[in-house]
Amino acid sequence: MGRIKPDVVFSKGGFVSVPVVLAAKFRHIPCVIHESDMTPGLANKICIPCAHRVCTNFPETMKHIPAEKAVLTGSPIRQELFKGSREKGLAFCGFDDTKPVLLIMGGSLGAVAVNDAVRGILPELLQKFHVIHLCGKGKLDDSLNDTKGYAQYEYIGPELRDLMAAADILISRAGANAICEILALRKPNILIPLSAEASRGDQILNAASFEKSGYSVVIQEKDVTNELLLKTVNDVYTNREQYIHAMDKSQLNNSIEKIVGLINEARKHNRRLNRKQK
Q: Do 259 and 206 share a structural domain?
């Protein structure tokens, strides 16, 4: 801090952020914090008293933060995701444009439950959809490699933006960053959050907030059956315009612009204080 002399510190949380934020506070450098999940994690709980402003993803998070600090901004989204091409996504998977596309993003942790549920109804899904399945490292099913209309990948790199552009609906876990990207891209979706046994329960809360706002349909992992998942996929696709309309009205849009505005505000506020002290 003494060598770089930053005007502002922006923190996304995590244990490595705590000494940085505390050092900034000691040197009277303003901090803007971003809390991704519904409830602040331990690192941000420690850092919030030092913050000039605290950005949140969810309206419900505001009650956990002092009112004069809390700002509903949403999450900053990777800008390359907005540059995807549906045509390139279809071509990458070897699909034509005769069916809508279902994209499944199981995530690396706990992907088995989502993968098994999807593969359990794959024949029925393929009657109506092309299916892109991001199933996680070591979780490919080689017996499905030659299945027409089905493309499975352990991991996707820069092509993700094209696969997202190609998708008409998604099935996903409910990590904060993932669902904010889905919201930003206006993709009707089904969320299957990690269970409380496999996490601190933040995904369950994240998913509940999105469902309450009309952006998503939520199925708890313990409730997933072949029949329920297939019905939900068909229902979400049939009613996709209603979800897109709800996402269009979200207060979580333009998050980067809002966050940059708060960073600039913190910088100007600190300069005013420094001038007064001199």
A: no
Angle at 8 between CA 12 and CA 50, to 5 degrees: 65
Domain that holds residue 236: 79-248
Stated pTM of the model: 0.86
Query: Is the pLDDT score of 80 beyond 80?
Result: yes
Place of tokens 């930003």: 184
Q: Is residue 185 part of a domain?
A: yes
Residue 68 sits in a domain of what CATH number? 3.40.50.2000
Task: For residues 116 and 234, state if they share a domain.
Answer: yes
* Same domain? 61 vs 85: no
Gap between the Cα atoms of 93 and 80, Å rounded: 20
Q: Considering the domain boundaries, does residue 1 fall inside one?
A: no
- On whether residue 4 sits in a domain, the answer given is no
Give tens-digit pLDDT for 145-165: 999 999 999 989 999 999 999
Tokens 């612009």, residue located: 257
* pLDDT value at 108 more than 80: no
pLDDT band at 277 (very low <50, low <70, confident <90, very high): low
How does the average pLDDT of the chain come out, rounded? 92
Q: Please say whether the beta carbons of 104 and 129 come within 8 A.
A: no
CA distance 168 to 128: 12
Taking only the tens place, the pLDDT of each residue in 229-275 is 999 999 999 999 999 999 999 878 788 999 999 999 999 987 777 76
- Claim to verify: residue 148 and residue 240 sit in the same structural domain: yes
